[in-house]
Design brief:
The complex is a heterotrimer of chains A (216), B (342) and C (364). With 216 residues, chain A is α+β, with helices and mostly antiparallel strands. Chain A has seven helices and eight strands, in the order E-E-E-E-H-E-E-E-E-H-H-H-H-H-H. A four-stranded mixed sheet of chain A has the order 5-2-1-8, with no helix packed on it. A four-stranded antiparallel sheet of chain A has the order 4-3-6-7, with no helix packed on it. In chain A, a hairpin with a 4-residue loop joins strand 3 and strand 4. Classes of the chains: A alpha+beta (216), B alpha/beta (342), C alpha/beta (364).
């Protein structure tokens, strides 16, 4: 892995006590950064991982979409809006962004009142296969590094939970080599299959250790 | 000899699955009859009768396997004060041991759909465990594994025999080897006989049957021979106690059908006649009914028959428990073939 | 002069499962613990074939066995190497009929439920575990038991293992990121609740809780019961026995990810574990590691794992269950138990898991 190229931004604070933004290492966008939010005195008031999916980020070439953060502050944020906050990357201590005027959102705390709701916001599993669209280049890097067949095998295991069959390797290998199908396209195809729909599985998000397409 | 202090009883886990227990340890007499098999009910009754003279009443431990040692065993020991002896009433699929106690096993009825092969398999898998047992109650199985004897002396229970068996009428045997349904129909149309009428025969051979016995090839050859012998000697009587309906089989018809099929399959010819001295009882006769007979009754049970005993015990009005002990001794003394599990 | 580390090969068969629960996770923890310990030259084997270390490490990073299985199946003939016979081999579970090959072998007994509770297993499963079990014990130089309870049951049923067994305690290892993920997630507000480990499988004894719902003390309480795991089609027949107004107290989570399980336990007041028989009871340790006391049946391994971090009850007694419940919901007692639970959980750790294995290997 090359030298880290860190970027980040403080976007908003909420009346419910959360600080939102994004942060990533451009050289390894699926390795979530551990970030901290400091107040004007340099005191840490929040800490977390920049690993949340954001649709706007996924549409930006810089990020696969999985670099947002939403961290709970240990103090009331209403006083800090004008006093300034800093976004730091914990490992290096580097300040990624400082802001004296972070936008305030009138969003109030929404507690989860059912198990179904709790499960629906599970940050460790995908809520939709489309959330991987922004990972196309990363999937392509895996394919390029490991080969088409290895990519297909990994895709089958990841989506369907089983080994790829010869027919699938043959068919999808041909389509991938001809660029008639993109790597993300294969994942979507498998996720749309009758097999997957009849036995749906929880698919781990790309920022967790179990995601098989990370090269490092 | 000082009387034993207290008996613990355990039963197969599968027998408890339909019962809501209120405690892991409770007086054994409180085990509900509903939900357990008739065979287990009788075995528990026999065990309770056997231990009724002990210092303290018997307790049932629902799942001894939950208390293998350490703190759980201490917890159990606090709830079983005075316990010295444990009997695992077993269907052959598992034998429970309680550390620190004298452990015994009671292989209760192998009729009622319980397969003796299950016991063979258990012995094959855990022969050394069975070697830790003090005795087997009311059976005389000789267990051998890889050429070694697993010595399990027999303890005969001083017990009641089927004290709740109702008075039963007897039915005369008729067998048309080519037509079992017709045989069953004919039997049902012949007037039933009062067991007291058996006093007009001597001797009486009384055979208690189980489903696994009827399925055993060795027994079928014995069955045919003994039926044919009685057709030629109308002064003696032969009484078969068919297996009682159990929790797996509904009604008594399957027992009769199984018996007639076993008789059909013998190599001996069976005359297509109503037998005036060969009787069928749908379930075992009560001890009272047997005890009321003035003539000798030779009693055979499934264990002894499978052992190939040729000298069954003879009793005149004595209790069945004494018979079992006598029969076991007979079998040993006559060097009969033992059932081997290897 | 460099010291050569003694070698140990671990049979990785359990890790070939797609989804890792139970024994595959135990195996992963064992490998992690021995890696951290560092005193052994670890190798990996399956059906006598050495498995490349990088394949096993990748599988551990992914937390699933599908790729490992593929890698094993795709090993070319020239890549396949038979493990040297002199290498000690540790089986993290049963050897089935694979054993008696290597000079030094040890296997791990998790529980004896197929022997002592055969009615809860299909015969094929009983046969798989028990048909070669005595031979397995004979061919072991040492047999590891995952708890004192399992060890006691093992020695009772197989007396010739006396002196040739050793305890092998596992530990809990939540992913590092779970704590910070949980802190930054929306608050859970489903009211006061206890998490329950159980299914309608008889051994798990969920029917005790269902019966206890009608006990006056429990019926009057506001505490709900969140049962973690798949609901199962048999549940409905059990629920029919419960008065409708009490049915809402039971919440079935269905299958959940490890993170959701973590959150549910962390937000609970305590855990209830009514099982009749467990080899170890890892869910209890999971709860205690998050500072939650456990209300457990007084059976099998629970007292040695939970220690003073919980309260015990007769697994068949609604009365004792209710008494334990009344004690654990009392705020002062709950706080006291929570502290003890956390402390108790710390005695199960990677060095403790590694030590007996290293001792065995080095004793040869």
């Amino acid at each position: 892995m090359g030298r880290a190229v860190l970027r980040g931004h403080l976007d908003t604070i909420t009346v419910s006590g959360f600080i939102e933004g994004w942060a990533l290492n451009i050289a390894a966008p699926l390795q979530p950064l551990l970030i901290a939010i400091l107040d004007g005195d340099g005191t840490e008031i929040a800490r977390g991982r920049a690993d949340r999916f954001r649709q706007d980020l996924s549409e930006n070439a810089l990020s696969p979409g999985w670099n947002g953060f939403r961290v709970r502050a240990s103090v009331s944020l209403l006083d800090y809006r004008e006093r300034g906050l800093s976004l730091c990357e914990c490992a290096s201590g580097k300040v990624l962004h400082q802001s004296k005027k972070v936008k305030l959102l009138e969003e109030h705390d929404h507690a989860l009142t059912s198990i179904e709701e709790l499960i629906s916001v599970d940050p460790t599993v995908l809520s939709d296969i489309g959330q991987l669209r922004g990972c196309e280049s990363i999937l392509g890097q895996f394919l390029h590094a490991k080969g088409v067949e290895a990519f297909i095998r990994a895709a089958y295991v990841y989506i369907l939970g089983r080994s790829a069959d010869r027919e699938g390797i043959g068919l999808y290998g041909k389509l991938l080599r001809q660029a008639a199908l993109t790597p993300f396209g294969l994942l979507r195809t498998l996720a749309d299959s009758d097999e997957f729909r009849s036995r749906p599985r929880q698919l781990i998000v790309p920022t967790m250790a179990g995601f098989p397409f990370r090269l490092s | 000899m000082r009387a034993a202090r207290r008996l613990l009883v355990s039963v197969p886990g599968r027998e408890l699955q339909k019962i809501r227990l209120g405690s892991s340890v409770f007086p054994a007499e409180q085990l509900p009859d509903d939900g357990i098999s008739p065979a287990l009910r009788d075995a528990v009754r026999l065990v309770l009768h056997h231990s009724s003279e002990w210092e303290q009443p018997a307790l049932l431990v629902a799942r001894p396997e939950m208390f293998p040692g350490g703190e759980t065993l201490s917890w159990l020991q606090n709830r079983i004060p005075g316990a010295t002896t444990h009997v695992s009433i077993s269907d052959g699929s598992a034998v429970k041991l309680i550390p620190g106690l004298k452990n015994h096993v009671f292989f209760y009825s192998f009729g009622n759909g319980l397969d003796e092969n299950v016991l063979k398999t258990l012995v094959r898998r855990t022969s050394r465990q069975l070697g830790a047992l003090r005795s087997q109650w009311n059976s005389a199985y000789a267990l051998r594994f890889e050429g070694k004897n697993v010595s399990l002396p027999t303890t005969a229970l001083a017990g009641c025999y089927n004290s709740r068996a109702p008075d039963r009428a007897l039915f005369k045997l008729f067998l048309d080897k080519g037509n079992i349904p017709n045989s069953m129909e004919t039997i049902s149309t012949i007037p039933a006989v009062d067991p007291a009428r058996l006093n007009s025969y001597s001797p009486i051979t009384y055979v208690t049957l189980t489903h696994s016995l009827l399925a055993a090839e060795r027994f079928r050859s014995v069955l045919g021979k003994v039926i044919l012998e009685h057709f030629f000697d109308e002064s003696s009587a032969l009484v078969f106690a068919l297996p009682e309906a159990d929790f797996k089989r509904e009604g008594v018809t399957p027992s009769l059908e199984a018996f007639l099929a076993a008789a059909r399959d013998t190599t001996f010819p069976i005359p297509k006649l109503v037998a005036n001295n060969i009787f069928l009882s749908f379930g075992e006769l009560s001890e009272a009914a047997l005890g009321a007979l003035d003539v000798p009754v030779m009693l055979w049970s499934s264990d002894i028959l499978l052992c190939g005993a040729t000298h069954p015990a003879t009793t005149r009005g004595s209790s069945l428990s004494e018979y079992i002990f006598a029969a076991a001794s007979c079998a040993r003394n006559n060097s009969t073939k033992w059932l081997r599990f290897c | 002069m460099t010291n050569v580390k003694p070698a140990l090969a671990i049979e990785i068969g359990p890790m070939l499962e797609d989804i890792w629960t139970g024994i595959p996770v135990f195996t992963r923890r064992l490998i992690s613990a021995l890696t951290q310990d560092g005193r052994l030259d670890l190798r990996f084997v399956h059906n006598c074939i050495e498995i490349p270390m990088d394949a096993v490490r990748s599988a551990m990073a992914l937390g699933a066995g599908s790729f490992l299985r593929e890698r094993y199946e795709q090993l070319t003939m020239s890549e396949r190497r038979i493990l040297d016979l002199s290498t000690p081999v540790l089986y993290p579970s049963t050897k089935s009929n694979l054993g008696g090959i290597y000079a030094r072998e040890a296997s791990t007994v998790h529980d004896l439920s197929t022997l002592v509770m055969p009615e809860n297993h299909v015969e094929a499963n009983v046969a798989y575990h028990m048909d070669h079990f005595e031979d397995e014990l004979e061919s072991n130089e040492l047999t590891f038991a995952i708890s004192q309870s399992t060890d006691a049951a093992l020695q009772s049923a197989f007396p010739n293992t006396a002196g040739r067994t050793q305890l092998l305690y596992q530990y809990v290892d939540w992913p590092d990121e779970f704590e910070v993920l949980d802190r930054n997630s929306p608050t859970i507000d489903i009211g006061r609740y206890a998490v329950v480990i159980g299914t309608v499988e008889p051994r798990k004894n969920l029917t005790l809780l269902i019966d206890a719902l009608s006990h006056p003390d429990i019926a009057a309480s506001e505490i709900k019961f969140v049962i973690i795991g798949k609901r199962g089609w048999l549940v409905d027949s059990f629920l029919q026995d419960i008065p409708e107004h009490l049915r809402g107290r039971l919440i079935f989570s269905g299958f959940v990810s490890d993170f959701i399980k973590y959150r549910l336990i962390k937000a609970a007041e305590f855990m209830i574990f009514p099982s009749m028989y467990e080899g170890f009871g890892i869910p209890a340790l999971e709860a205690m590691s998050l500072g939650k006391p456990v209300m457990a049946a007084m059976t099998s391994s629970f007292p040695e794992v939970i220690g003073e971090g919980g309260i015990y009850f007769d697994p068949f007694s609604v009365t004792e269950f209710a008494e334990a419940f009344a004690e654990i919901v009392s705020p002062s007692r709950a706080a006291e138990l929570a502290a003890k639970a956390l402390k108790q959980s710390s005695i199960f750790n990677p060095p403790r898991m590694a030590a007996p294995v290293v001792e065995w290997v080095c004793s040869g």
